[in-house]
Amino acid sequence: MSTQRKPKPSAVIFAKDITALAHFYAEVVGMKEAHRDKDHIVLDTDVFQLVIHGIPKKVAAQVQITVPPQVRENTPIKVCLPVDSIEQARLRAAALGGQVGAKGKEWEARGFRACDGFDPEGNVFQVREGVA
């Protein structure tokens, strides 16, 4: 039997500006920075890590980020992140160049309320809050 601790589950989001995107997720979702080096920043909770990883330079030149960002809805994966309040996440996201959908776009399932949004680089994500 191994005594090694299992690593936390994590997801990776590739970004042109890792500092700005890490700040966005730290503020919107309430995560803390656990590690930083020149090509990635790790955000952490008790049970999960979100890694903001730089897009390789030879590819980054081909990636254009518009303002507002072009939402990349046709990707095969979406990160779903817990928050204390969807409304607070909505306000923080808007202030930081992203968006969480309007209240009318929220839906409920399996003990949570959810709403999709996008970050300043157009990556789609979802926030979830618990419901009684």
UniProtKB/TrEMBL annotation:
InterPro entries (UniProt xref): Glyas_Bleomycin-R_OHBP_Dase (IPR029068), Glyoxalase_6 (IPR041581), VOC_core (IPR037523)
Question: Boundaries of each VOC domain copy?
Answer: 7-130
Pfam families, per the entry: Glyoxalase_6
Q: Which PROSITE patterns match?
A: VOC (PS51819)
Judging by the UniProt lineage, the source's domain of life is Bacteria
What SUPFAM superfamilies does the database record attribute to this sequence? Glyoxalase/Bleomycin resistance protein/Dihydroxybiphenyl dioxygenase
What's the protein called, per UniProt?
VOC domain-containing protein
